[in-house]
Every structure is written in structure tokens, then in C-alpha cells.
Design brief:
The chain is α/β, with parallel strands linked by helices and 317 residues long. It has a single domain, classed as TIM Barrel (Alpha-Beta Barrel), CATH 3.20.20. Helices cover 48% and strands 10% of the residues. The protein is built from 13 helices and eight strands. It has an eight-stranded parallel sheet. Helix 3 crosses helix 11, helix 10 packs parallel to helix 11 and helix 11 packs parallel to helix 12. The radius of gyration is 19 Å and the shape is globular. The termini are far apart.
Length: 317
């Protein structure tokens, strides 16, 4: 982080001045750019590589009140080996669960290379005290979570209390520290469907990055609209420009509403053409989707064998 960005976080007034001084987003231009990139055609050989890349970027998720250890273990088995009949299919990037399910997920994916992410901080609303958010995060990290997905206080952000949002992200980031081991990565969820404007999406992206986010994420998946292409475009521009100013890379995770292989490939094109190829790895780009994986597997099998699998071939997520 540069000295100038450290200084802008010194008060709400300086944060506000910086964030509102960012270039405005041309809404029509962003919509048109995303729509144009979404029409790019991909040759069959490139499509096969894109499908495998998309599979490797998936965060396979279960975030329901009815989650059980058995459901989590079943999801983890699929994450490690998405198609039991085809060992050439890559594992997904991570599984994402509630904090109390982290120990079950950690045990199920141990040694596989699949990361365990945990939503924390009062997910999905974020309507709880900072103390609870920090404790929630610390519990997940102590249980073995590799990544924490926190949600910002959208009420504070929309009220212009940027300093509160900043301080909460900093505190949760500190709670991601692991004594004697690798710190958990922090993915900051903006819940873009509630931010109203693309300018707010850009401001929230920069605010999260200044506060130390390792990833910025569009949505919880519980609010519509979620990960629209123009919103993802604006966030990709933000991480690109942030690296140009600070030298630090930050990842991007669109989540919610990405259901088909076509959707996934559109996102990969967006990444390549906006942020650049450095972001085309699971380390820097993720796809948050529970129903996407099966469609990717079906399309992969179609390319390999020439026909689609039956509707009951793949397990339901």
C-alpha cells in the first residue's frame, strides 16, 4: 500500500474525499463493453481449456440452515473429484461453508489441495457487532479455514460512514492471522445488488482493497441482482487500477447467478480483456456458484464424447 492510500484512511472525511474523487463509471459504456465481450466466440480447443479452467476456479458452496456434516462431506468429495468416472477433471478451487461446518470440510478435503472457505461476520446481512464478527472469523480460522468470506456493512457504506466499513475490514483481516502458520485469505463481499450504482461498486471495491482485502466478491448469492457482467467488469477495472497504483494484486470473485458454462466463459473473457491474463488463475479469480459445476461437467463430457450425460449422471449440489 502506498503512503498516500494509507493517509486517505486516516479519517472518514479523507476516505470520502478519495473515494468520491475516483473517476465516475460510464454506465452505458460499462453495459455495452460487457455485452460486447459476452458475444466473443471461442473455438472448440479453446473451449475445452476454458471449461477446465472454470472448473478449477469454482468455489463449491453450501450455505443453508439445514446443512449437516454428511452434506458437507458429500460436497467436499465432489469438490475433490467432480466426476468420479474421469480422473482428468480438475478439482475445484475451494468449498465454502458456515463456520461450524469448517472442521468437517477440513477433514474431508485434507491433502487434496482444495481450500476451505468460511463465511463469517454475520453472513449474509452483516447486521451484528464488530466483536461478534471478529469472534466468528477467529473461530473459523482456528478450525482450519483457509479463506474467510466477510460481508460489509452496506448500511454504513450507503450512509457514507466509510471509516466504519474500513475499520471492520481491518479488524476482520487481523482476525485472519494464524499463529505459526499461513494467514487465512480475506474475501470481502460487497453485496453489489444493494449498492445501487456502478460508482458505489467502484468505491466499495477500492475501500475494501485499501483496508487489506485479498479478494473482492460481488455478492452473498442471497440478494438479486448478483454477479452481473457489468458489475464484474467494474470490479476487474478496480483491481487492475489498484495494482497499477500500489503494485499489489487483489483477486475478484463474482458470485450468484452464474449457472451455465456460457456464463462462466463470459466471465473468463471479461477477466482476460479487462484485468489481464495474470488474473486467469484460481489464485486470483473465482466463480461462486453451486449449480454451475454440473453444467461445466456436462459440457465437458459433450466435447469429449460427443454426447451429453443423462440428467442423473452427476450428483445434485
Amino acid at each position: 500500500m502506498t503512503t498516500s492510500l494509507t493517509e486517505v484512511a486516516s479519517s472518514n472525511a479523507t476516505l470520502r474525499a478519495f473515494l468520491h474523487g475516483l473517476p465516475g463509471v460510464d454506465r452505458v459504456g460499462a453495459d455495452q463493453r460487457a455485452a460486447t465481450l459476452g458475444t466473443r466466440s471461442i473455438k472448440t480447443t479453446a473451449k475445452a481449456k476454458a471449461i477446465d479452467l472454470a472448473i478449477s476456479m469454482v468455489d463449491l458452496t453450501t450455505l443453508e440452515g439445514a446443512d449437516t456434516p454428511g452434506k458437507v462431506r458429500a460436497m467436499c468429495a465432489k469438490a475433490v473429484r467432480p466426476d468420479p468416472a474421469d480422473g482428468t477433471v480438475p478439482s475445484v478451487a475451494a468449498v465454502c461453508v458456515y463456520p461450524d461446518m469448517v472442521p468437517h470440510a477440513v477433514a474431508a478435503v485434507r491433502g487434496s489441495g482444495v481450500a476451505v472457505a468460511s463465511v463469517a461476520t454475520g453472513f449474509p446481512s452483516g447486521r451484528t457487532s464488530l466483536g461478534v464478527k471478529v469472534e466468528d472469523t477467529a473461530l473459523a480460522v482456528a478450525s482450519g479455514a483457509d479463506e474467510i468470506d466477510m460481508v460489509i456493512d452496506r448500511g454504513a457504506f450507503l450512509a457514507g460512514d466509510y471509516r466504519k466499513v474500513y475499520e471492520e475490514i481491518v479488524a476482520v483481516k487481523a482476525a485472519c492471522a494464524r499463529e505459526g502458520g499461513t494467514d487465512a485469505h480475506l474475501k470481502v463481499i460487497l453485496e453489489t445488488g444493494e449498492l445501487v450504482t456502478y460508482d458505489n461498486v467502484r468505491r466499495a471495491s477500492w475501500l475494501a482493497m485499501i483496508a487489506g482485502a485479498d479478494f473482492i466478491k460481488t455478492s452473498t448469492g442471497k440478494v438479486a441482482p448478483a454477479a452481473t457482467p457489468p458489475v464484474t467488469l467494474v470490479m476487474l477495472e478496480a483491481v487492475r487500477d489498484f495494482r497499477a497504483q500500489t503494485g499489489r494484486m487483489v483477486g475478484v470473485k463474482p458470485a450468484g447467478g452464474i449457472r451455465t458454462t456460457k456464463d462462466a466463459i463470459k466471465n473468463i473473457v471479461l477477466v482476460n480483456e479487462t484485468a489481464g491474463p495474470d488474473w486467469l488463475t484460481p489464485e486470483w479469480f473465482r466463480l461462486g456458484a453451486s449449480s454451475l459445476l454440473n453444467d461445466l461437467l456436462m459440457q465437458r463430457q459433450k466435447l469429449t464424447t460427443g454426447h451429453y450425460a443423462g440428467p442423473d449422471y452427476f450428483t445434485l449440489d
